[in-house]
């Protein structure tokens, strides 16, 4: 990987796919409870399924939550990437921030779906979310600083 290349724009669809992977996990884990005609009933169907293991149900519900959270933050992240690029923020900084954001989103998904059941790891999810949001804010701050430096 060359740090001379600006990878920041590529991380936007990658972050979207990271969020979507949680939807895919939830759907494939739901089995017969997923209805292609009414997909938004999956959570309710799984909750009513008496044969579903409680641990699997928890993972499905948390995967849906991780997917929703990814969708809630992707727009702000994409806007931050565009703002930082248009403002002329250094591509090395952009690469580091963008790849760090992607890493936090991947760890967020893992933490939310698989670590929440483990004692002592419950607090990891909000910490990782906070780190991902701090990266987004940093993109905007760097964009603002770059624009103001050129006034």
Automatic annotation (TrEMBL):
What superkingdom does the record give? Eukaryota
Q: Which UniProt keywords apply?
A: Membrane, Transmembrane, Transmembrane helix
Which residue ranges run through the membrane? 7-26, 127-147
- Chain coiled-coil ranges: none
Localisation: Membrane
The family database entries (Pfam families) matched by this protein are listed as: MAPEG
Species this protein is from: Dactylonectria estremocensis
InterPro entries registered for this protein in UniProt: MAPEG-like_dom_sf, Membr-assoc_MAPEG
Is Ribonucleoprotein among this UniProt entry's keywords? no
Protein name as it appears in the record? Uncharacterized protein
Does the record bear Transmembrane helix in its keywords? yes
How is this protein annotated for GO cellular component?
membrane
